[in-house]
Amino acid sequence: MTIVPNSIEARDIAYQLHPNVNLRKYEKTGGLVIESGDGIYVTDTSGKRYIEGMAGLWSVALGFGEKRLAEVAKAQMEKLPYYHTFSYKTHGPSIDLAEMLIKMAPVPMSKVHFTSSGSEANDLACKMVWYRSNALGLKDKKKIIGRVKGYHGVTIASASITGLPRNHESFDLPLDRMIHTSCPSYVHFGLEGESETEFTARILKDLEDLILKEGPETIAAFWGEPVMGAGGVLTPPAGYWEGVQEILNKYDILLVADEVICGFGRTGKMFACETFNIKPDVLVVSKQISSSYMPLSAIIVNDRFYQPIADESNRIGVFGHGFTASGHPVATAVGLENLKIIQERDLVGNAARLEEKFLGGLAKLAEHPLAHSSRGVGLIGALEMKPWEGAAAGDAAAALSAACEEEGLICRNVAEALCFCPPLIITAEQIDDMFACVARALDKVAAARA
């Protein structure tokens, strides 16, 4: 990219500190500046149009340019642009959305607390797990189990629960209360000659052995994404979630299901907990709750979780937590309308109906000589690349991602996987277009290596 002085790209380099990049490299290359969006497409400042194969950051369920959300935001801005939920005060949109979330939850739930991002929501859930243990007089029951390759955010607590080295290195993380168990990805961690059933049994044993080693009386909660997103779209093997829940119930350990990516239709069910028969104590949601048109997230908790916390707040006089933007009226109004549209247009059903075509398209791409395998569920999936001999880890997927962008498709490379998570509004024809871009990109990368 040629950086023109005083252009928007040059000003970006001059003034913005970007997340998830090599900052020195960014100073030299700059980034792609997106100017507009429509449906599943976005357009950059040069006028080039792309299929947004990642729905932004796994999140824009309704695609770009949904006028109903803009109209609701404008109306709420004019009526009540801001109010809080502190100190015995609240407002209509947060009440309405909380009621809707309780009614649509995959298992019986009790209360909703709003935050602004998935990281904040997981951080709050962590604090509340500790608060609850203190309320029950379990002063030592504070450890939290995350998983290798799990992702739960970038705050100090949520990054500590995360099991990705890039979110720990040089940040002095993870905190010492956070421990990690095996990643349930058979394609990455299955042993030679080991069946998927044997793999599942082994990693479940790893979990129970970890609990016994640390002491069940010291472990408060287990965190898990039903499908691991930022780790590379890692789908669980058969029997995994049933086995995890049996172990957690045996040792009285809470289950926190992180549905920040999976929630609101991504797996072909309203919640991935339904897809995998997960019964959490805490459900963490964000992203598709508002299609990311407004920053919004929530934790949804059951009565087993809530009641000790309420008792403790009564004992000490206050639940001493809150964010300025918790339950922001514009964000919750947009979230409410977004979920209504998902239901009205049967976008959960759309994901279920298109699953076979989507996964079939990925499987076809996996037949390419550069590819290794594919995986996914609903409308979230990944194409695993074969590592290049003598190259750095992840180079193959990075090259394919760059080639896809040249072909007019934005997706995301994670290790050797190319990840896809298109808007839920995508059509069968658009899936064909998306994977045609990938096929051309694969051939382009292969030709460059020939």
TrEMBL record:
Domain of life: Bacteria
MF terms (GO), sorted A to Z: 4-aminobutyrate:pyruvate transaminase activity; adenosylmethionine-8-amino-7-oxononanoate transaminase activity; pyridoxal phosphate binding
Keyword Metal-binding: no
Record-linked CDD domains: OAT_like
Keywords of this entry: Aminotransferase, Pyridoxal phosphate, Pyruvate, Transferase
Gene Ontology biological-process annotations: biotin biosynthetic process; gamma-aminobutyric acid metabolic process
InterPro entries from the UniProt entry: Aminotrans_3, Aminotrans_3_PPA_site, PyrdxlP-dep_Trfase, PyrdxlP-dep_Trfase_major, PyrdxlP-dep_Trfase_small
Signal peptide: none
Sequence similarity: Belongs to the class-III pyridoxal-phosphate-dependent aminotransferase family.
UniProt-listed PANTHER family: ADENOSYLMETHIONINE-8-AMINO-7-OXONONANOATE AMINOTRANSFERASE
Protein name per UniProt: 4-aminobutyrate--pyruvate transaminase
Organism taxonomic ancestry: Bacteria, Pseudomonadati, Pseudomonadota, Alphaproteobacteria, Hyphomicrobiales
